[in-house]
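Sequence, please.
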């Protein structure tokens, strides 16, 4: 068998840029290649295969993708370099022209990455120089395949991809162009993947997708149906919903999560702007009144819930008055953290038709104000829980530091010096003061959760 496999006994290096969905896809690809005899390259080892899973949500993301590709081709001369992901779908020919890149695959081809690698590596010695730089991508409207992904990579938590693509055409966003229309796996398939995670010893799954609240377009099911089905998988003790649109976060989902067996009191909800005027320019499908109502309903059902919110600053049309409206609205929300993004011009988007342009200096000032507000809210949320006892799932540290983990309501905890805990173990912990960095709370395991 190995004689017929041109990639057997090789090693591969991976770079993932962008969202949790990309991470899930890369991790699953790595697992598949390992079953083909391709092990992950160790630090400093020259790889035979390099895979870059790209993002294109901003021009900064594009720049990071180009940097990653050039860095890998320098560090691994002669390696077979594959580029996939959003940037690869949007700019396949441009990337294929980069020195050292062998293969660029669009969204419809990502389920067949291993086949393409095997075929092209078997042929590489006989191909011409031009043929060694190939881009394979179909137009966006032809992207129809849902490629399942579920993996933890080198982490403790698993990432389960349940949906891909988006039918929302927000004026600032290229994701529908890069990933195609909304599509999903069946509930039966996703439950099977969760059961496999449980058999492998996994305890926590993060549910990922581009627009997971839109789940069911392909199968006639609903996201609420999926939530209930996953909650019944024995062995999985925690689920987190990575991001869900406010207009798709129904009252029944909130109520179910509040009383469920395994769904954590943790929501991540994109707001994008706290100004109704800007939301209309963005073509978002809700207003600030609806958003505030969702936060209130979560707080009523789960007072201790961690609520993270995405915000974009400096979009076209965001005047100084509109930004101040947005800031005041966000300041008044009972949330735990903001994820702040600066708007960047994306070719092909309707936002380019909006006349008012925010200067880079104003974008930076607005971004820094929101980041500072986020830190205030996060620390206030953490501070409320000092002295309480909550369950923590411990995770190993990539940097070799203290064992850390997250409470059910997503407070980051570092194990107190002298205390013992095991990776991938759930333990009740009394939350102490902030660490020196202020990024975590110190945690001391307790025998009695009611202490």
């Amino acid at each position: 068998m190995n004689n017929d496999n041109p990639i057997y006994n090789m090693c591969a290096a991976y770079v993932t840029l962008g969202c949790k969905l990309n991470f899930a896809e890369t991790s699953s690809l790595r697992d598949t290649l390992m079953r083909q005899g391709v092990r992950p390259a160790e630090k400093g080892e020259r790889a035979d295969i390099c895979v870059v899973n790209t993002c294109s949500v901003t021009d900064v993301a594009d720049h990071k993708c180009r940097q990653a590709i050039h860095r890998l081709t320098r560090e691994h001369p002669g390696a077979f370099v594959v580029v996939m992901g959003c940037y690869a779908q949007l700019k396949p020919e441009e990337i294929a022209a980069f020195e050292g890149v062998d293969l660029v695959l669009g969204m419809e081809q990502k389920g067949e990455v291993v086949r393409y690698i095997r075929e092209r590596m078997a042929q590489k010695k006989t191909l011409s120089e031009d043929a060694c730089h190939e881009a394979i991508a179909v137009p966006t409207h032809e992207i129809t395949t849902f490629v399942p992904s579920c993996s933890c990579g080198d982490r403790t938590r698993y990432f389960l991809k349940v949906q891909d693509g988006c039918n929302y055409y927000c004026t600032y966003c290229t994701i529908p162009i890069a990933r195609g229309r909304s599509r999903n796996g069946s509930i039966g398939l996703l439950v099977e993947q969760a059961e496999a995670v449980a058999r492998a010893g996994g305890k926590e799954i993060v549910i990922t997708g581009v627009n997971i609240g839109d789940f069911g377009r392909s199968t006639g099911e609903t996201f609420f149906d999926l939530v209930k089905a996953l909650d019944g998988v024995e062995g999985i003790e925690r689920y987190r919903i990575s991001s869900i649109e406010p207009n798709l976060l129904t009252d029944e989902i909130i109520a179910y999560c509040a009383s469920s067996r395994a769904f954590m009191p943790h929501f991540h909800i994109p707001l994008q702007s706290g100004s109704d005027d800007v939301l209309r320019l963005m073509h978002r499908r809700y207003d600030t009144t609806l958003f505030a109502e969702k936060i209130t309903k979560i707080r009523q059902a789960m007072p201790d819930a961690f609520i993270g919110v995405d915000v974009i600053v400096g979009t076209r049309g965001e005047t100084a008055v509109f930004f101040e409206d947005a800031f005041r609205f966000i300041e008044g929300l009972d949330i735990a953290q903001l994820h702040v993004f600066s708007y960047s011009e994306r070719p092909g988007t309707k936002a380019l038709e909006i006349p008012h342009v925010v200067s880079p200096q104003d974008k930076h000032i607005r971004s820094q104000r929101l980041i500072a507000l986020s830190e205030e809210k996060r620390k206030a949320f953490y501070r409320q829980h000092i002295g309480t006892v909550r369950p923590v799932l411990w995770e190993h540290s990539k940097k070799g530091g203290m064992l850390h983990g997250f409470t059910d309501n997503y407070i980051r905890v570092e194990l107190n010096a002298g205390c013992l805990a095991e990776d991938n173990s759930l333990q009740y912990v009394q939350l102490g003061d902030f660490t020196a960095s202020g990024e975590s709370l110190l945690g001391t395991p307790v025998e009695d959760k009611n202490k």
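The chain has a mean pLDDT of 93.
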